[in-house]
Amino acid sequence: MNDLSKQEYISEINRLNKIIDVLATRAEQGINSESSDFSLFQTTIALEEKVRKRTEELRDTQKKLVESEKMASLGRLVSGVAHELNTPIGICITSASLITEITEEVHTALSDNEITESQLIEYFSSVNETVDLIANNLSRSSTLISYFKQVSVGNSSEEIAKFNLKEILDDVNSIYINKFLSRNIIFSIECDENIELTSYPDALAKILSNLIAKSLDYAFDEESSGKIIIEVTQDDESIKLLYRDSGKGMSADVSSNIFEPFFTTNRSNGNTGLGMFILYNLITQQLNGDIQCTSELGKGTTFVLSLPNLNK
After folding, report:
1. What is the pTM of this model?
2. Which segments of 112-228 does DSSP mark as H helices, in order?
3. Sign of the Cα pseudo-torsion (253, 3, 148, 282, in order)
4. Domain extent listing, the chain
5. CATH 3.30.565.10 fits 161-308, yes or no
6. Tens digit of each residue's pLDDT (9 = 90 or more) over 255-276
């Protein structure tokens, strides 16, 4: 949803609110003036019809804007996949062509009995290096395709279940406790032991593990200490999970793009930039929730997850 569309949507909501205010004002006037009862009734009916029509139009507009944003997001994803796959596949094609070329040269030299032992050794060495290069880039391509498949959360076979949230948090803690100790990271959980959620427990555990892994990889240096805190509150229909680390934090430009596909500040080390995008999709699509990120350089990062109870 672009900024202009959002502004138009907000303007329409404000217009409806004004119409409702007019209805309320005229209703008050009608109470104090018996002679205007019939006129008030006619005006009320007309205004209610306008509100109904505008509400329907707004709903249709909202659906179109949501679909438009989904298509735009899909377009960015497909474009990113094509770009990311183009490099390793291009390297494989170039390397295969090189092997073909030098093999033809060696074959010709063998046919003419003009090849030396040193030339054969050089040939085998070149082939081995090139084959390793091809294998590495095919492996990278395979990894990218695997990430791409994870984006489609509809493929999950996990069933909705009712579970104790504190137990899930404790399970995740047990996975990382040795790393926390070795890195001098204090991990704190503030969650009532009786809070239960009806959702996808494995998906939630994966999300929390991803957030912790990101904190350990990016928020804290190897020698620095710090804190990771998870706070959970509950209302009648949903759960609010606040995840906060005391690490390096992020600039506004990085935090505003953190959920975009293929966005990464660590591409030189092989990061695909799909991890947080997959996490966002899991939360918004599979768990039907929401996630917001706030961060400031030198002041850590906070993620706020809103998770509703799902129907079985």
Report:
1. 0.58
2. 117-151, 165-183, 201-214
3. positive
4. 1-151, 161-308
5. yes
6. 888 888 777 777 666 666 778 8
